Amino acid sequence: MSTAVVILNWNGRSLLEQFLPSVIRFSEGANIYVADNASTDDSVEFVQENFPQVKIIQNKENGGFAKGYNDALSGLSEDIFVLLNSDVEVTKNWLNPILEIFKNEPKTAAVQPKILDFKRKNYFEYAGAAGGYIDKYGYPFCRGRIFDTLEEDHGQYNDDTPIFWASGACFAIRNTVYWEAGALDEDFFAHQEEIDLCWRIHNLGYQIKFSGISNVYHVGGATLDSMNPRKTFFNFRNSLYMLLKNVPTPNVYGILFMRMILDGIAGIKFLINGKFSHLYAILQAHTAFYRNFQKMHRKRRGITKNSEYYQVKSIIWSYFCLGKNEFSKLK
User: Fold this and answer.
1) So what's the pLDDT on residue 220?
2) Fewer CB under 10 Å: which end of the chain, C or N?
3) Using alpha carbons only, what angle is made at residue 208 by residues 202 and 211, rounded to the nearest 5 degrees?
4) pLDDT tens digits for 127-175?
5) What backbone torsions phi and psi does residue 127 show, to the nearest 5 degrees?
6) Looking only at Cα atoms, what is the longest distance across the chain?
Protein backbone atom coordinates (compact mmCIF):
# COMPACT_ATOMS: atom_id res chain seq x y z
CA MET A 1 0.00 0.00 0.00
CA SER A 2 1.84 3.09 -1.25
CA THR A 3 1.54 6.33 0.71
CA ALA A 4 2.00 10.00 -0.13
CA VAL A 5 2.49 12.45 2.74
CA VAL A 6 1.63 15.84 1.25
CA ILE A 7 2.39 19.08 3.09
CA LEU A 8 0.72 22.21 1.72
CA ASN A 9 2.96 25.26 2.03
CA TRP A 10 2.49 28.96 1.57
CA ASN A 11 5.36 31.20 2.69
CA GLY A 12 6.14 28.73 5.45
CA ARG A 13 9.90 28.33 5.40
CA SER A 14 10.21 28.57 9.20
CA LEU A 15 7.57 25.88 9.71
CA LEU A 16 9.19 23.57 7.17
CA GLU A 17 12.56 24.09 8.81
CA GLN A 18 11.11 23.17 12.20
CA PHE A 19 8.73 20.32 11.38
CA LEU A 20 9.79 18.70 8.10
CA PRO A 21 12.71 16.80 9.74
CA SER A 22 10.32 14.79 11.95
CA VAL A 23 8.20 13.89 8.92
CA ILE A 24 11.26 12.66 7.02
CA ARG A 25 12.59 10.76 10.01
CA PHE A 26 9.41 8.97 11.01
CA SER A 27 7.57 8.39 7.70
CA GLU A 28 9.42 5.29 6.58
CA GLY A 29 8.28 3.96 3.22
CA ALA A 30 6.16 6.99 2.34
CA ASN A 31 6.80 9.45 -0.46
CA ILE A 32 6.99 12.95 1.00
CA TYR A 33 5.83 15.97 -0.99
CA VAL A 34 5.75 19.69 -0.32
CA ALA A 35 2.95 21.23 -2.37
CA ASP A 36 3.72 24.91 -2.68
CA ASN A 37 0.86 27.37 -3.14
CA ALA A 38 2.80 29.99 -5.15
CA SER A 39 4.91 31.14 -2.20
CA THR A 40 6.79 34.42 -2.43
CA ASP A 41 9.41 33.47 0.16
CA ASP A 42 12.34 31.09 -0.34
CA SER A 43 10.65 28.02 1.17
CA VAL A 44 10.85 25.97 -2.04
CA GLU A 45 14.54 26.73 -2.50
CA PHE A 46 15.12 25.90 1.17
CA VAL A 47 13.52 22.45 0.81
CA GLN A 48 15.36 21.72 -2.44
CA GLU A 49 18.71 22.59 -0.90
CA ASN A 50 18.28 20.93 2.49
CA PHE A 51 15.88 18.03 1.90
CA PRO A 52 16.54 16.68 -1.61
CA GLN A 53 14.57 13.50 -0.80
CA VAL A 54 11.38 15.59 -0.57
CA LYS A 55 9.52 16.07 -3.84
CA ILE A 56 8.22 19.53 -4.74
CA ILE A 57 4.84 20.17 -6.35
CA GLN A 58 4.48 23.78 -7.47
CA ASN A 59 0.92 25.04 -7.76
CA LYS A 60 0.40 27.98 -10.09
CA GLU A 61 -1.62 30.04 -7.59
CA ASN A 62 -2.59 30.26 -3.93
CA GLY A 63 -6.02 28.67 -4.22
CA GLY A 64 -6.31 28.07 -0.49
CA PHE A 65 -6.39 24.74 1.31
CA ALA A 66 -8.99 23.08 -0.92
CA LYS A 67 -7.73 23.99 -4.40
CA GLY A 68 -4.13 23.72 -3.25
CA TYR A 69 -4.59 20.09 -2.27
CA ASN A 70 -6.80 19.24 -5.24
CA ASP A 71 -4.19 20.56 -7.64
CA ALA A 72 -1.37 18.79 -5.82
CA LEU A 73 -3.07 15.41 -5.45
CA SER A 74 -4.33 15.28 -9.04
CA GLY A 75 -0.90 14.21 -10.25
CA LEU A 76 -0.22 11.56 -7.58
CA SER A 77 -0.86 7.82 -7.87
CA GLU A 78 -0.20 6.51 -4.34
CA ASP A 79 -2.93 4.43 -2.70
CA ILE A 80 -3.16 6.60 0.41
CA PHE A 81 -2.96 10.38 0.63
CA VAL A 82 -1.97 11.92 3.97
CA LEU A 83 -2.79 15.62 4.04
CA LEU A 84 -0.47 17.07 6.70
CA ASN A 85 -0.27 20.64 7.94
CA SER A 86 3.16 22.24 7.84
CA ASP A 87 2.95 22.99 11.59
CA VAL A 88 2.62 19.35 12.68
CA GLU A 89 5.31 17.31 14.43
CA VAL A 90 4.88 13.58 13.84
CA THR A 91 6.16 10.81 16.09
CA LYS A 92 7.80 7.43 15.67
CA ASN A 93 5.56 4.85 13.95
CA TRP A 94 2.75 7.38 13.51
CA LEU A 95 1.83 6.03 10.07
CA ASN A 96 1.73 2.31 10.91
CA PRO A 97 -1.57 2.23 12.88
CA ILE A 98 -3.25 4.33 10.21
CA LEU A 99 -2.13 2.05 7.39
CA GLU A 100 -3.16 -1.04 9.37
CA ILE A 101 -6.71 0.27 9.55
CA PHE A 102 -6.77 0.83 5.79
CA LYS A 103 -5.39 -2.66 5.14
CA ASN A 104 -7.84 -4.44 7.44
CA GLU A 105 -11.00 -2.38 6.86
CA PRO A 106 -11.93 -1.89 3.18
CA LYS A 107 -14.96 0.26 4.06
CA THR A 108 -12.86 2.73 6.04
CA ALA A 109 -12.12 5.62 3.70
CA ALA A 110 -10.32 8.07 5.99
CA VAL A 111 -8.38 7.99 9.26
CA GLN A 112 -7.24 10.63 11.74
CA PRO A 113 -4.55 10.18 14.41
CA LYS A 114 -4.65 11.64 17.92
CA ILE A 115 -3.85 15.34 17.56
CA LEU A 116 -2.19 16.85 20.63
CA ASP A 117 -1.12 20.42 21.36
CA PHE A 118 2.50 21.10 20.41
CA LYS A 119 2.78 23.76 23.13
CA ARG A 120 1.13 21.64 25.86
CA LYS A 121 1.85 18.12 24.80
CA ASN A 122 -0.36 16.45 27.41
CA TYR A 123 -3.45 18.28 26.12
CA PHE A 124 -5.55 17.76 23.01
CA GLU A 125 -5.31 20.33 20.23
CA TYR A 126 -8.23 22.38 18.97
CA ALA A 127 -8.21 21.23 15.33
CA GLY A 128 -9.28 17.62 15.54
CA ALA A 129 -8.27 16.35 19.00
CA ALA A 130 -9.51 12.72 19.16
CA GLY A 131 -11.92 12.86 16.24
CA GLY A 132 -14.70 15.17 15.17
CA TYR A 133 -18.50 15.36 15.23
CA ILE A 134 -21.13 18.00 14.49
CA ASP A 135 -24.44 18.89 16.06
CA LYS A 136 -27.76 19.30 14.26
CA TYR A 137 -26.95 22.90 13.31
CA GLY A 138 -23.48 22.22 11.93
CA TYR A 139 -21.34 23.24 14.91
CA PRO A 140 -18.22 21.07 15.04
CA PHE A 141 -16.74 19.62 18.22
CA CYS A 142 -14.34 16.82 19.08
CA ARG A 143 -13.61 14.14 21.56
CA GLY A 144 -11.19 16.03 23.74
CA ARG A 145 -12.28 19.51 22.63
CA ILE A 146 -15.62 21.31 22.87
CA PHE A 147 -15.46 24.96 21.81
CA ASP A 148 -12.40 26.35 23.66
CA THR A 149 -12.31 23.69 26.39
CA LEU A 150 -9.42 21.30 25.80
CA GLU A 151 -9.15 18.07 27.78
CA GLU A 152 -5.93 16.70 29.15
CA ASP A 153 -4.90 13.42 27.55
CA HIS A 154 -5.10 10.64 30.14
CA GLY A 155 -5.42 7.86 27.58
CA GLN A 156 -9.22 8.14 27.65
CA TYR A 157 -9.33 8.11 23.84
CA ASN A 158 -6.66 5.51 23.07
CA ASP A 159 -9.09 3.56 20.91
CA ASP A 160 -9.86 2.96 17.26
CA THR A 161 -13.39 4.21 16.77
CA PRO A 162 -15.68 5.58 14.05
CA ILE A 163 -15.98 9.38 13.95
CA PHE A 164 -17.94 11.81 11.79
CA TRP A 165 -15.07 13.94 10.52
CA ALA A 166 -11.29 13.78 10.46
CA SER A 167 -9.20 16.91 10.86
CA GLY A 168 -7.51 18.49 7.86
CA ALA A 169 -4.45 19.03 10.07
CA CYS A 170 -3.63 15.34 9.58
CA PHE A 171 -6.06 13.62 7.25
CA ALA A 172 -5.37 10.21 5.69
CA ILE A 173 -7.68 9.10 2.89
CA ARG A 174 -7.80 6.52 0.13
CA ASN A 175 -6.87 7.97 -3.25
CA THR A 176 -9.91 6.40 -4.95
CA VAL A 177 -12.41 7.67 -2.37
CA TYR A 178 -10.97 11.20 -2.40
CA TRP A 179 -11.97 11.57 -6.04
CA GLU A 180 -15.12 9.44 -5.80
CA ALA A 181 -16.46 11.80 -3.12
CA GLY A 182 -15.69 14.83 -5.26
CA ALA A 183 -12.46 16.00 -3.55
CA LEU A 184 -12.31 19.13 -1.40
CA ASP A 185 -14.82 21.81 -2.36
CA GLU A 186 -12.78 24.69 -3.75
CA ASP A 187 -15.60 27.18 -3.10
CA PHE A 188 -14.81 26.82 0.62
CA PHE A 189 -11.23 28.07 0.05
CA ALA A 190 -10.27 27.26 3.66
CA HIS A 191 -11.87 26.01 6.90
CA GLN A 192 -14.41 23.19 7.32
CA GLU A 193 -13.88 21.81 3.84
CA GLU A 194 -12.66 18.55 5.38
CA ILE A 195 -15.93 18.23 7.34
CA ASP A 196 -17.89 18.72 4.12
CA LEU A 197 -15.77 16.06 2.39
CA CYS A 198 -16.25 13.63 5.28
CA TRP A 199 -20.01 14.14 5.13
CA ARG A 200 -19.98 13.21 1.45
CA ILE A 201 -17.83 10.17 2.24
CA HIS A 202 -20.48 8.97 4.71
CA ASN A 203 -23.15 9.47 2.04
CA LEU A 204 -21.22 7.03 -0.17
CA GLY A 205 -21.47 4.35 2.52
CA TYR A 206 -17.90 4.49 3.85
CA GLN A 207 -16.79 5.14 7.41
CA ILE A 208 -14.14 7.41 8.94
CA LYS A 209 -12.06 6.31 11.90
CA PHE A 210 -9.83 7.66 14.65
CA SER A 211 -6.62 5.89 15.59
CA GLY A 212 -5.78 6.44 19.24
CA ILE A 213 -2.28 4.96 19.09
CA SER A 214 -1.00 7.26 16.36
CA ASN A 215 0.12 10.58 17.85
CA VAL A 216 1.01 13.91 16.25
CA TYR A 217 1.50 17.39 17.73
CA HIS A 218 -0.09 20.43 16.10
CA VAL A 219 0.82 24.08 16.67
CA GLY A 220 -2.49 25.41 15.34
CA GLY A 221 -3.26 28.90 14.08
CA ALA A 222 0.07 29.15 12.28
CA THR A 223 -1.64 30.31 9.09
CA LEU A 224 -4.68 32.18 10.44
CA ASP A 225 -5.26 32.58 14.17
CA SER A 226 -8.64 32.39 15.88
CA MET A 227 -8.86 36.16 16.43
CA ASN A 228 -8.62 36.96 12.75
CA PRO A 229 -11.96 38.22 11.31
CA ARG A 230 -11.15 36.46 8.04
CA LYS A 231 -11.30 33.14 9.90
CA THR A 232 -14.67 34.19 11.35
CA PHE A 233 -15.90 34.87 7.82
CA PHE A 234 -14.81 31.47 6.49
CA ASN A 235 -16.21 29.54 9.45
CA PHE A 236 -19.65 31.16 9.33
CA ARG A 237 -19.98 31.13 5.55
CA ASN A 238 -18.69 27.61 5.12
CA SER A 239 -20.96 26.24 7.85
CA LEU A 240 -23.95 27.49 5.87
CA TYR A 241 -22.50 26.07 2.65
CA MET A 242 -21.99 22.69 4.32
CA LEU A 243 -25.51 22.52 5.75
CA LEU A 244 -27.13 23.48 2.45
CA LYS A 245 -25.10 20.86 0.59
CA ASN A 246 -25.55 17.95 2.98
CA VAL A 247 -28.51 18.11 5.42
CA PRO A 248 -31.11 15.49 4.46
CA THR A 249 -34.40 16.55 2.90
CA PRO A 250 -36.84 17.87 4.13
CA ASN A 251 -35.00 19.30 7.16
CA VAL A 252 -32.47 21.49 5.39
CA TYR A 253 -34.35 24.80 5.32
CA GLY A 254 -35.55 24.64 8.92
CA ILE A 255 -32.04 23.83 10.11
CA LEU A 256 -30.56 26.63 8.00
CA PHE A 257 -33.08 29.09 9.47
CA MET A 258 -32.19 28.05 13.02
CA ARG A 259 -28.48 28.29 12.26
CA MET A 260 -28.98 31.83 10.98
CA ILE A 261 -30.71 32.78 14.22
CA LEU A 262 -27.77 31.37 16.17
CA ASP A 263 -25.39 33.30 13.92
CA GLY A 264 -27.36 36.45 14.75
CA ILE A 265 -26.92 35.77 18.46
CA ALA A 266 -23.18 35.35 17.90
CA GLY A 267 -23.17 38.68 16.05
CA ILE A 268 -24.88 40.41 18.99
CA LYS A 269 -22.25 38.95 21.30
CA PHE A 270 -19.47 40.33 19.11
CA LEU A 271 -21.23 43.71 19.13
CA ILE A 272 -21.51 43.77 22.94
CA ASN A 273 -17.83 42.83 23.26
CA GLY A 274 -16.79 45.56 20.85
CA LYS A 275 -15.52 43.11 18.21
CA PHE A 276 -17.02 45.01 15.31
CA SER A 277 -14.76 43.46 12.68
CA HIS A 278 -16.06 39.99 13.61
CA LEU A 279 -19.67 41.20 13.45
CA TYR A 280 -18.96 42.57 9.99
CA ALA A 281 -17.38 39.23 9.05
CA ILE A 282 -20.64 37.42 9.92
CA LEU A 283 -22.63 39.87 7.80
CA GLN A 284 -20.21 39.31 4.93
CA ALA A 285 -20.50 35.54 5.39
CA HIS A 286 -24.28 35.63 5.12
CA THR A 287 -24.14 37.92 2.09
CA ALA A 288 -21.76 35.50 0.37
CA PHE A 289 -24.05 32.59 1.25
CA TYR A 290 -27.12 34.27 -0.26
CA ARG A 291 -25.13 35.20 -3.36
CA ASN A 292 -23.98 31.60 -3.88
CA PHE A 293 -27.16 29.85 -2.69
CA GLN A 294 -28.13 28.37 -6.05
CA LYS A 295 -24.59 27.22 -6.79
CA MET A 296 -24.32 25.39 -3.45
CA HIS A 297 -27.82 23.95 -3.76
CA ARG A 298 -26.89 22.33 -7.08
CA LYS A 299 -24.17 20.39 -5.22
CA ARG A 300 -26.70 18.43 -3.16
CA ARG A 301 -26.28 14.82 -4.26
CA GLY A 302 -26.25 11.32 -2.86
CA ILE A 303 -28.05 12.41 0.32
CA THR A 304 -29.92 9.70 2.21
CA LYS A 305 -33.29 11.11 3.23
CA ASN A 306 -33.26 9.91 6.84
CA SER A 307 -29.50 9.75 7.47
CA GLU A 308 -28.60 10.94 10.97
CA TYR A 309 -25.44 12.99 10.96
CA TYR A 310 -25.31 14.59 14.41
CA GLN A 311 -24.03 13.31 17.75
CA VAL A 312 -26.08 15.76 19.87
CA LYS A 313 -28.92 18.08 18.90
CA SER A 314 -27.27 21.30 20.11
CA ILE A 315 -23.71 21.46 21.37
CA ILE A 316 -24.34 25.11 22.27
CA TRP A 317 -27.14 24.12 24.66
CA SER A 318 -25.15 21.22 26.10
CA TYR A 319 -22.02 23.32 26.65
CA PHE A 320 -23.25 26.77 27.66
CA CYS A 321 -26.52 25.88 29.37
CA LEU A 322 -25.92 22.39 30.79
CA GLY A 323 -22.22 22.79 31.50
CA LYS A 324 -21.20 19.67 29.58
CA ASN A 325 -17.66 20.68 28.66
CA GLU A 326 -16.20 17.21 28.06
CA PHE A 327 -17.17 14.68 25.42
CA SER A 328 -17.90 11.94 27.97
CA LYS A 329 -20.51 14.16 29.61
CA LEU A 330 -22.50 14.48 26.39
CA LYS A 331 -23.66 10.88 26.65
Assistant:
1) 85
2) C
3) 170
4) 999 999 999 999 999 999 999 999 999 999 999 999 999 999 999 999 9
5) -85, 75
6) 56
